[in-house]
Amino acid sequence: MDKFLKLALVFVVSLSLYAKEEPQTKEIEEEPTRLESYTKLQKVIAAVEMLYVDEMKLSQIVDKSIAGLLHELDSHSSMLNKDRFKNMQVETKGEFGGLGIVIGKRDGALTIISPIDDTPAYKAGVKSGDIILKIDDQSTINMTLQDAVDLMRGEKGTPIDITVVRKGENEPIDFHIIRDIIKIESVVAKTINDEILYLRVSSFMDMKVSNELRKFILEHKEKTKGIILDLRNNPGGQLGEAIDTTDLFVNSGVIVSQKGKDEKDYEEFEASRSNTVTDVPMVVLVNGGSASASEIVSGALQDHKRAVVVGEETFGKGSVQRVIPITDDGTEAIKLTVAKYYLPSGRTIQAKGIKPDIKVFPGKVVTQEDSSFSIKEANMIKHLEEELNKVEPSDTKKSTKKEETKEEEIDKKVITTEQIMEDNQLKSALDILKSLIIIHK
Fold first, then answer.
1. Looking at the domain assignment, is residue 377 inside a domain?
2. Which domain holds residue 393?
3. Is 317 a residue of the active site?
4. Which residues contact 291 (CB under 8 A, 6 or more apart)?
5. Total structural domains in the chain?
6. Can you list the residues of the chain whose pLDDT is less than 50?
C-alpha cells in the first residue's frame, strides 16, 4: 500500500496547487467533484500497477492512460512519444519514410484521404476514399490513426501489404507496396498555350509552398492571363502555408479564423495587399482527397469570389490541432484538438467540406468521336489513297519519332492537348477559365 499512499499524496498536492489558482467560490463548488475524479483515476492506476497480470512500470501505465484519453476525444488527438514526435518534425521538413498516403477516420473507418503524388502508394493505384481493412495481417478495426501510421512506416525497400475496400468494387483489393523515402515536392508549375498557368499543389506539409508558388507566378506573370490551382488529393498540412498561399491571390479581408472552447481562443488571419502577386482570373480544382489546409485555401478563395471552385466535394477536415510538449526535455508531446476553422463567410469545414461551384466528375473527356459511330471516306475500301497521302503521308515514322522526342523535352513544363483530354475535370476548369478571361478583359 506504500505505492498507493504515495500516488494519493501526489494527487492531493496537485489538487491543492490547482485550487490556489481558482477563485475561492469556485474552489468550494468544484473541489469535491474534482477530488472524486482524481481519486478514481489514482485508484485505477494503482490497481493496474499492483495487480495487472504482466509486469508494467508506472511510466508505461501513465503513457497508456494518456493515449487512451486522447483517442477517446477524437481521431486527430494523440500522444506523441519520442519516435512519433521526431517523425512528425521530419515530415514538416518535406522528407520522410513510408508509403506516401495520408489517412484519417471517416465514420469510424480508417480511410485514405489521399495518396501523395509520385509515391509508392500513388504508383500502386491506391485512391482517395479507399477504406483500409488490413495492414499486413492486422485488422484495422479499432486501430488508432497513429498506430496505423506506425505500422505503415518502415525502412526503404521493405514490403507491406494493405487490403482496402473501394466504392464500386465488389471485393476487397490487395496492394503489395515497397516502402521508399517520401520526398514531398509540393509545387509543380506548367503552362497551357503559354497564357494559362497551371499550378499543382500536392501538399501543404512542408514550409516552402507559398514561396514556390510566388516564384512561379512572378516568372510567368507577363504572359499569364489566368491560373488553374490544382488542389485535388491535397491532404493539407501547415496552416501558415495555407494562409500565405491564399494571401498571394486575395488583397484584403479575413482568410480564415479559428475558435476554441473559450471566447479568448478566437483568432483571425487576414490578407495583406502587399503580399498579393496577381489578380488574374482563377479556377481551383478540388475533390474528395482535398482536406484541411487545401480546404481553407479553396474555401477562402470561393468566399472572396476570387476563384471558381470546380470538381467534387472535399473531405471535411476543419479542426485545429496543437502540439503541446509534456516533458521537460521537449522530446514527448500530445497533439490536441483545440479549435475549429471557419471560413470568411463564417461557415465551418469540419464534417461538411467545400462544395464546388461547378461539380465535375473525373475521367476522360467524352467527345463526339468517342460516343458516336461514323464512317468517313478514309474508312472506305477504295478511297482515294493518293489524295489522302497528300494530307496524311503514310511514311510518318521519322516525323513521329521527332515529335515524340520533342514532346518528351517539353512535357515537364507544358500540358499537352492529349493530357487535357485525359482529365475531364482539368478540361472543364480550362473551359471555365477561358470564359472568365474573356469577361475580365
1. yes
2. 368-422
3. yes
4. 102, 104, 113, 114, 234, 235, 236, 314, 315, 316, 317
5. 4
6. 1, 4-22, 27-28, 388, 396-410
